[in-house]
Amino acid sequence: MKKRSDNQSTDYPPSPGYGVASTDYTDFESGQSAIRNPQSTIRPAFTIIELLVAISIISLVLTITMPGIIKLFTAGTDLQSRNVISGMLGAARAAAIENQSYAGVHVQIGTDGKCWAAVMQLDKVSGKFVPVSGFPPKSMPGDMAFGGISSDYVSGSHYTNDVNTDRDGFTTFNVIFSPDGSLTGRVNGNLPQIETDVKIFGGDGATPKQKIWEPCLPAGTGPTLDEDGVRAITAFHYKTFKVMPDRQSWLEKNGQFLCINPYTGKLLPDEQE
């Protein structure tokens, strides 16, 4: 018992750890318990029904919002890929005018399964297109890819069955600019050719990391640039496209038909937007 200075005594609760077995004690001045029973503050766990209801609500919200979220991300990759290819087309046209020579953009599915594009320029000595220094090849964002619009793959306003039978040929094409900056299909009346003995095609002592494209189509039918340049392209999601049994019908609904501006070399806005 401890004495106060006014000669009144006050009982203080015993300190824990001094032989006191109880974890509870009473404040003698207030008459209330100073330590509550720990079990009185524990909330009961969720019941099975409550968990099922919560899961059902989350599933419903995801079902409603996921299409919009996917569309948002898809629209982003669509726009980014068009910006990439449009910028490369503009650079190729500028190079053609500046050097008074033919230049263009070569597009092809790479060894990594992604769509790649490179700015190319005609080498007057070899008569073949070579990569332009200062413009490294670029891959398209996400799984976006482009297909060349030519008479082989489009008839009127519809895709032909060749997009089903010649997938690699459809996704391998060139856009060629003449020395005055206009779009053209040929080089001095001849089919454009690419120099495949360069690093991006695995030549010139390239390392596996430097190699982007195979020098020939899978059928082994020769250089991939030996074809007329195109004036319009189609944008689409390659992963879906390549597994579709009927690519022709799928492109009719999902392909984005894009013309190339003959005055600037850049892509014209999609009419669907």
What does this structure look like?
This protein is α+β, with helices and mostly antiparallel strands and 273 residues long. The chain has one domain (54-259). It has 5 helices and 13 strands. Strands 3, 4, 5, 6, 10 and 11 form a 6-stranded antiparallel sheet that branches. It has a 3-stranded antiparallel sheet with strand order 7-12-13. Strand 8 (154-155) and strand 9 (158-159) form a beta hairpin. The longest helix is centred in the first third of the chain and has 52 residues, at 48-99. Residues 1-5 and 17-29 have low confidence and may be disordered.
What is the gist of this entry?
With 273 residues, this protein is of the alpha+beta class. The chain contains five helices and 13 strands.
Helix/strand-derived category reads alpha+beta
The percent range for strand residues is 15-25%
* Radius of gyration over C-alpha positions, nearest whole angstrom: 35 Å
Number of strands: 13
Name the shape in a single word. elongated
Give the biggest sheet: 6 strands, antiparallel
Distance between the termini: 88 Å
Uncertain spans: 1-5, 17-29
User: What is the average of the pLDDT values?
Assistant: 81
Helix content: 25-40%
- Say what oligomer this is: single chain
Give the ordered list of helices and strands. Answer: EEHEEEEEEEHHEEEHHE
What is the domain total for the residues? Answer: 1
